[in-house]
């Protein structure tokens, strides 16, 4: 395997984002077969003025339509079931504490320095601070802060309920000049590259937070990526961009992420221009059809497609952030099993919720594509070559190893004995093989470790494939990893990726 340290950002994001480019057929690992599909909907209810509805509603107040067909509601949870445990102190001080909050929602705040003008970055930071200063010292939702820059996507503060810590990290953050955006202009390979970087970051968020069971409210403050008109593009490139958008959305939905995008540039849109009709935008989703089938790939598609809102043209960004957080806290959760059992991944299923009270409005995701094994774990995609599968796996590991974002799809712990680290992976999240004739089972995983100096430079790494037998029902997996470390390291990160579920977990060691 080539050195992770030599992987360029451009290659990494493009290969991880566009796995459908390769078409060579090959034998792949066994796929995951989903026999009963359950669609989970997080639903925000408002009145005609947009005010959140807090009064008691029951399942009888909701009618779910999928492609205009009424569906049977299988489960119903009111907002009261999505609350943090009662406490006069912070419950969550890091991602490790998220297991204490059950299905309560969390918030991810992202400041976009990749696609925003320098003056918009400054304004966004001021409004983020103003929003935080208006909150109570202990935040109602565990909140993480992330930054998208020219070259990387990083977490600058882990999940916390400490308002002042988040204010401090935003005040200290010195934004980078957006040279990648300024150099690429409105069109050309640079614009597509930035699109790839953003979608790779969204997929990384989805993969990293897959172990958090409740709703994740992703609030992206920035321009996102330039929109792309597909009409008039070379067909293969258009198909690739559209497929990437669909795949990214599927990953967000699978992780139960609702996105709110906030564009700080009033009245501004950016489009990758090709020769297209002026009225292209009017073809988008007017009749409740596939939101990605209208000829335009746009960052603002992510919000309604995941049940959120795309805000543009607002100067009071602090209030917009507060509104997004509030909507992400007061919601109902409903589920149903679709009456249409077709697994056609190209057929978009349109979802609509009708309220018994006509003065109320229910907001949830626009719909979905039937989930495939490659949506669950892209390494299992049968349409791509073995070489591409290996590249996707390497890039998954690279993304997790070279970031500070905590991955909790697997629960990983590391302890040291001399120069050997004992790695333990909890049972939850691991996918075990079918029982052998003797009843034994095993799991397969890729294990990586990387170590860093005080400047955050990756000094070295090691990667191994592991197969381990299943022990007692709660024993999980245990293995050893011998590592000889230099003296000047300040952080050691372990990454474990289950071969069949695609779940990933990380553990960081900072004391040596």
Which helices and strands occur, and which strands form pairs?
Layout: H1 9-17, E1 39-46, E2 62-66, E3 69-71, E4 73-77, E5 106-112, H2 118-133, E6 138-148, E7 153-162, H3 163-172, H4 179-184, H5 189-208, E8 216-221, E9 227-229, H6 235-254, E10 257-262, E11 271-272, E12 296-297, H7 302-306, E13 310-311, H8 317-327, E14 332-336, E15 349-355, E16 361-363, E17 367-368, H9 373-376, H10 386-401, E18 412-417, E19 420-425, E20 442-452, E21 458-469, E22 477-482, E23 491-498, E24 504-509
Parallel strand pairs: 5-6, 5-8, 8-10, 9-11, 10-13
Antiparallel strand pairs: 1-14, 1-16, 2-3, 2-15, 4-14, 6-7, 9-12, 15-17, 18-19, 19-22, 20-21, 20-23, 23-24
Helix pairs in contact: 1-5, 1-10, 2-3, 2-8, 5-6
Outline the structure in words.
The protein contains ten helices and 24 strands. It has helices spanning 9-17, 118-133, 163-172, 179-184, 189-208, 235-254, 302-306, 317-327, 373-376, 386-401, and strands spanning 39-46, 62-66, 69-71, 73-77, 106-112, 138-148, 153-162, 216-221, 227-229, 257-262, 271-272, 296-297, 310-311, 332-336, 349-355, 361-363, 367-368, 412-417, 420-425, 442-452, 458-469, 477-482, 491-498, 504-509. The strands form six sheets. The chain has a six-stranded mixed sheet, sandwiched between helices. A hairpin with a 2-residue loop joins strand 18 and strand 19.
